[in-house]
Design a protein that fits this description.
The structure is a single chain. This protein is of the alpha+beta class. The relative contact order is 0.13. The strands form 3 sheets. It has a 6-stranded mixed β-sheet with strand order 7-5-6-4-3-8, with helices on one face. 27% of the residues lie in helices and 17% in strands. It has 8 helices and 13 strands. It is globular. α6 packs across α7 and α6 packs across α8 (300-310). It has helices spanning 6-11, 54-62, 113-126, 150-153, 180-191, 226-238, 276-292, 300-310; strands at residues 12-13, 43-44, 67-70, 80-83, 92-94, 100-103, 132-133, 163-164, 196-198, 207-211, 216-220, 248-256, 259-266. The longest helix has 17 residues, at 276-292. It has 2 domains: 46-191, no CATH class; 196-310, Yope Regulator, Chain: A, CATH 3.30.1460. Residues 301-310 have a biased composition (Basic and acidic residues). Pfam families: DUF5926 (PF19348), SEC-C (PF02810). Residues 47-317 form the DUF5926 domain. Residues 1-38, 293-317 are annotated as: Disordered.
Length: 317
Amino acid sequence: MTKRTSDQSAAEAPVGKRQPCPCGSGKRYKACHGAESGSRQPIVTRPFGGLAAEGELVALREFVPSATAELPLRTGDRSILLATVLPMAAAAMVRNDGQAFVGLQVQTKSGDISSDLARAVEWAQQAEPGQSLPAVGPENVPTSVAPNRLQDLMDPQEQLSPQLYDDFSWWMPEDTEPSREVQLSLERANAAITPTQRIDAEGVCSAYWVDTGTKAHLRWVRSESEDRLIAALARLSARGELALDEDSRYAGSFRAHGLIVPVWDLDREKHASEWREPARALGQRLEEALSSLDDEPLTSTERRAREGLRGRQVTIR
């Protein structure tokens, strides 16, 4: 019998049929994982809980277009790269040069993304060069020896160091001519890329500058509980310290896999690197606000700010 981590059972929760499906598909629950046999499947709403890399995993699955990251596996001889998107939206593939990839931005087959990824990793560890896994599930991936979840495969204390790309040329080894099918998939994927850069600054993790073509944003995946994070943001808002600088404004937040992702609108004329210091300073202010919550209850002004922030949900799809 395989091991189920406490993070999974703790995160399973009932989901309303009209609510967004926690799997991240963008569909309502009743049209996605709640549709089968008319019964409700248990959904793990925080599938990457317990991992130091949780924030990066959420970012790579939800909004980073083209990136890879070495998966810090506990065992196994083959290097596995987590990838945002693979050719034909494959769940996993092994290039002809032997490099194995597991895709994050794929349709899941169960109510637990972590479980599906663990199965894809097991497949990638055993597959031959040139093979591709179009979908992952119990029907097409052996599970006799597979750990139950991603948390059982990787070192929970290790962070990810994503490598971002301007296109998807990394799909193919150098000096390799893609098939017509892969070439078409490559062209479609390249055309859909949104310029994105990771904000690399002291004390800043899982924060990304994104240019949508009409606006630039900072999207920052946070690991704190929603109530605590919104309270800290409200404290900064009441002090007039919630923006990164005079050329930015707090836009709102969205939920992704059990975490809250605050979003700031930014001046598109500024380069992504110009936001490193403002992000570092904002991160420091936010940490101080979070720490102060233990000793200083919100004031009436801060409570009003909190109610205003709760209603500012943004949509990125």
